[in-house]
Amino acid sequence: MSNPKPFATRIDLRSGLMSGYERHTLRRLSDMPGYFHASPADEDPLIYEYFERDVPPEDGQIVQNVSILHPGAIDGEYHMTKGHYHANRRCSEVYLCLSGRGVLLMQTRDGETGALELERGISVYVPPGWAHRSVNTGDQPLMLFALYPADSGHDYAAIAEQGFWARVIQGAEGHPLVVPRRDGSG
Ligand code: PAN
Ligand code: ZN
Fold first, then answer.
1. Backbone angles phi, psi at 10, to 5 degrees
2. What is the pTM of this model?
3. Average pLDDT for residues 162-173, to the nearest whole number?
4. Cα(130) to centroid(ligand 1), Å
5. Which pLDDT tens digit goes with each residue over 47-80?
6. What are the structural domains, with CATH classification, of the chain?
7. E runs forming strands in the chain
8. Minimal-distance CA residue to ligand 1 atom 3
9. How much is the CA Rg of the chain, to the nearest whole Å?
10. What 8-state DSSP symbol labels residue 31?
11. How much distance in Å is there from the Cα of 56 to the middle of ligand 1?
């Protein structure tokens, strides 16, 4: 794929719809075995989806991504993305929340942890080396715009095996709680 010419993208700030996307990825509960603390066998909701503009996967190119996390919870655990490290450890990312409410969980391989709230107008800088997972804690879609280097690569395996340092669950009166996991609690 050669260097693209300059191009514009329209992002509907209400629906999150991105014009001209080349990639649309859907994640249902069945695509996420073992990620939630429970997985009811009788339902398979759409947890999240994301749209991307394709550029060459090379140093210097930037991917534009719109992610939509649909509201809901699986046995009290809010809908969330799989989460990943960037395979290229030099690669960072910027998230901008377009609408909805949520939390961005983060962690490093050295055991540092972070959780930052997301709401319309908040941007979060995810430095190199920090895994990241977004969680929808609201009752509306959580829409996120993200920019990341096209040569980042995505390392899902470490998170699939070890999970994140905390789970985000529905507390009393519907308030979200970020609950640190004890080792072995999945
Ligand atoms: C995001 C994510 C997107 C979906 O664009 O890819 O929100 O999350 P998962 O990739 O964890 O399923 C990003 O962080 N890209 O690098
Ligand atoms: Zn990322």
1. -100, 130
2. 0.96
3. 95
4. 13
5. 999 999 999 999 999 999 999 999 999 999 999 9
6. 23-180 (2.60.120.10)
7. 23-28, 46-53, 62-69, 73-74, 77-78, 85-86, 93-99, 101-108, 113-119, 123-126, 130-136, 142-149, 154-155, 166-170, 176-180
8. 67
9. 16
10. G
11. 18
